[in-house]
Amino acid sequence: xxxxxxxxxxxxxxxxxxxxxxxxxxxxxxxxxxxxxxxxxxxxxxxxxxxxxxxxxxxxxxxxxxxxxxxxxxxxxxxxxxxxxxxxxxxxxxxxxxxxxxxxxxxxxxxxxxxxxxxxxxxxxxxxxxxxxxxxxxxxxxxxxxxxxxxxxxxxxxxxxxxxxxxxxxxxxxxxxxxxxxxxxxxxxxxxxxxxxxxxxxxxxxxxxxxxxxxxxxxxxxxxxxxxxxxxxxxxxxxxxxxxxxxxxxxxxxxxxxxxxxxxxxxxxxxxxxxxxxxxxxxxxxxxxxxxxxxxxxxxxxxxxxxxxxxxxxxxxxxxxxxxxxxxxxxxxxxxxxxxxxxxxxxxxxxxxxxxxxxxxxxxxxxxxxxxxxxxxxxxxxxxxxxxxxxxxxxxxxxxxxxxxxxxxxxxxxxxxxxxxxxxxxxxxxxxxxxxxxxxxxxxxxxxxxxxxxxxxxxxxxxxxxxxxxxxxxxxxxxxxxxxxxxxxxxxxxxxxxxxxxxxxxxxxxxxxxxxxxxxxxxxxxxxxxxxxxxxxxxxxxxxxxxxxxxxxxxxxxxxxxxxxxxxxxxxxxxxxxxxxxxxxxxxxxxxxxxxx
Length: 597
Description:
It catalyses: ATP + protein L-histidine = ADP + protein N-phospho-L-histidine. Its EC number is 2.7.13.3. This is histidine kinase. Keywords: ATP-binding, Cell membrane, Coiled coil, Kinase, Membrane, Nucleotide-binding, Phosphoprotein, Transferase, Transmembrane, Transmembrane helix, Two-component regulatory system. It is a single chain. This protein has four domains: 1-55 and 175-279, Beta-Lactamase (2-Layer Sandwich); 57-174, 2-Layer Sandwich (Beta-Lactamase), CATH 3.30.450; 309-422, no CATH class; 424-592, Histidine kinase-like ATPase, C-terminal domain (Heat Shock Protein 90). The chain is elongated, with a radius of gyration of 60 Å. Residues 418-423 and 591-597 have low confidence and may be disordered. The strands form four sheets. It has a five-stranded antiparallel beta sheet with strand order 2-1-5-4-3, sandwiched between helices. It is α+β, with helices and mostly antiparallel strands. The protein contains 13 helices and 17 strands. 52% of the residues lie in helices and 18% in strands.
């Protein structure tokens, strides 16, 4: 039951896993999209700041070189002409303030000389842009004005531009219009200085706050330059320098990107609410949960259908069972009648099988006894001739062969019974060469009658194996006689018997140069009573018996064509060397040790 529940839960689990993977992919894609958008917006904002800076960058240079502005440095006191000139330039250029200071930092001329809070007479020697200009360098410094209290970007150059400076020309640029443009854009963007103090921001409450807590040394430096007046400079976020990709400000989390404003040394920051990087995940989760719910609803509907179908099926089966019971009663009676007929048929079939087996065995006995009988005729004829010539030793040899053949015929009648019923045979260690020699003697008459040459190609050493020798001889005789019958039709009939050891097997090949076995008959030649030698009186049992003997001995019998166009029979016998040596040793020991009484 638990396995079934697990299988039913697999689809929604797979859906949720796929949804989780898609969510990760969508979040990553949204992050890349947000970062790409941020990079584009930061580039735009950076160009805007640099454009504003470049717009007024020339003014300090012009003032430092124009005698109408620098005349006050030569005179060492304010003049109305210089003030009027600076007022006119400020009006035409759009700059917030223009003023000129002497080497002590005292303002001698200013564009707001008419105002109540005029810069004329004020000293700004504590400002970094003043000291930078006295060193002969261009000064840039964002700060809250010490006199007017209005923030701006101060640009300064020494006067004269080259050589020993007599004073400093300063231009103040109002950055408030740029900040207002950021606010109207609806985006969260701000600029920080090298100390991490925010001085421009689209969110007004973030102005003059810091990205991290400032050290005492930094606070002392800012106080000394009066850069941000009396602002508390509290930390906006705990992320160091605002370099983290995710920052939290006033309890809200943002995706953070930044870019440096090279010429001014500022850093621009662009924040996107973290929700925008996850806006596409809720439809995915909603779809996944919806699909899972639909799946379970579908399971419930399917379950209801199955139950209704099962109920209807039970009703049908109840009716069917009643009908089936009646049919079963009828079938039991019919089965009893059929069983009685079957027993009668089996008795008749058993009798027919016994008669067929007797006929098959009789044919086999006649087939197998014809071979040794032919050899007997040859030995009897030879004995008569030897008696006529008075060659008694030769007669005795022939009588021994005749005795051996009659013993073999008696043994063959027992062995042929295995064609219809397997029986055990004596297994012993023999030299295969002896079996080949015995088979060659029996089949010799057939070779002489048909004028067929027999070529035995045997190795010098013994070919020991553990097997039933009479069975091996029976197979070899059948193969030799088949080879002789096939080669007899050739002009120069020849049969070659070769023996080869292949691993733990011995393969005896009997090849002839006869007409061979057609391809379509190779599967049939080992069937009982199949023969192609009807004119020679063959019964078709020799190869069938041989095939069965080879299988009983643990080997095989196969046929294949050879290079001469004839057939080659391969008789394979198992012959593991270790087992043969052990059996040989056991047999020799049994001979040397007398049996116990």
